[in-house]
């Protein structure tokens, strides 16, 4: 669903550009669909837009913008940015007191959809300065229509999204630093005991913590379940032994903590 914008609500310094990258670029890279810098009055609004296959980044340079998205009302003041999955219903509009000076980019690309989903699912305002990277993306998107510039634009978009995701992760970690200490200690415990039979009950008993809570916490802070992490370090250890020793498969399985060579070969 496309929504018309009241362009009379935009200051004359506002600008926007639509871009049409090649099919090859759209298949391989992140790419800009349209980009702009708006100076919006209090009459500016985009209401109930949805089913637009795109990601939208809004970044407030000055003033205030309001976003309604996923049953939340979010205020973007100076230096704040927010990323929207435009397939979902959303609205955004200028605050009442002053011009909302903001940059925006509609972009897409199949190469990091899972990566992007983690950002939009977090539904977090971020405080990163994207002023320079915005202009970099704009420059490469509109410079000579070459594969080289398409790749550079894609790289800049990914860099921008990486900064946003790291900011989100850092905010979560700062809010939960005592729990992060538990995870760090549990990782040390797992690594020190990886060669013996080890299960989730053993870890939770060691730290006097419930299995459900610990599993949720571990997954949220490492991206893996405790069992997945244990398997990953056992596999890494076995790779190292395969490459650097003359041990048999059975001996490597035992030294890596796998329960028999058949179980090791399965992994």
Q: What features would you describe in this structure?
A:
- Helix 2 (113-122) packs parallel to helix 4.
- It contains 10 helices and 9 strands.
- It is 47% helix and 21% strand.
- The chain has 267 residues and is α+β, with helices and mostly antiparallel strands.
- A hairpin with a 2-residue loop joins strand 5 and strand 6 (72-76).
- Strands 1-2-9-4-7 form a 5-stranded antiparallel beta sheet. It has a 4-stranded antiparallel beta sheet with strand order 3-8-5-6, with no helix packed on it.
- The mean pLDDT is 84.
- The protein has helices at 23-28, 113-122, 131-142, 147-175, 177-192, 200-207, 211-222, 226-244, 249-256, 261-266; strands spanning 15-18, 31-40, 45-49, 55-62, 65-69, 72-76, 81-85, 90-94, 100-108.
């Amino acid at each position: 669903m496309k929504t018309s914008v009241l362009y009379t609500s935009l200051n004359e310094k506002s600008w926007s550009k639509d871009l049409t990258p090649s099919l090859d670029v759209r298949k391989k890279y992140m790419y800009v669909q349209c980009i702009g810098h708006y100076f919006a009055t209090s009459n500016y609004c985009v209401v109930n837009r949805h089913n637009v296959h795109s990601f939208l980044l809004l970044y407030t340079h000055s003033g205030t913008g309001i976003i309604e998205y996923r049953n939340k009302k979010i205020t973007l003041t100076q230096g704040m940015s927010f990323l929207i999955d435009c397939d979902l219903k959303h609205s955004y509009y200028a605050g009442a007191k002053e011009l909302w000076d903001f940059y925006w980019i509609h972009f897409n690309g199949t190469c990091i959809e899972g990566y992007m989903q983690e950002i939009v699912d977090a539904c977090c305002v971020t405080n990163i300065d994207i002023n320079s990277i915005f202009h970099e993306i704009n420059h490469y998107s509109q410079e000579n229509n070459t594969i080289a510039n398409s790749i550079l634009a894609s790289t800049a978009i990914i860099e921008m999204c990486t900064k946003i995701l790291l900011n989100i992760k850092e905010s979560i970690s700062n809010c939960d630093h005592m729990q992060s200490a538990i995870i760090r200690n549990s990782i040390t415990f797992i690594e020190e005991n990886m060669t013996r039979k080890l299960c989730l009950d053993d870890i939770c008993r060691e730290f006097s913590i419930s299995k459900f809570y610990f599993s949720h916490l571990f997954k949220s802070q490492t991206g893996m379940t405790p069992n997945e992490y244990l398997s990953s370090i056992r596999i890494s250890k076995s790779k190292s032994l395969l490459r650097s020793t003359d041990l048999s498969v059975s001996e490597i399985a035992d030294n890596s903590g796998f329960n028999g060579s058949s179980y090791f070969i399965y992994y």
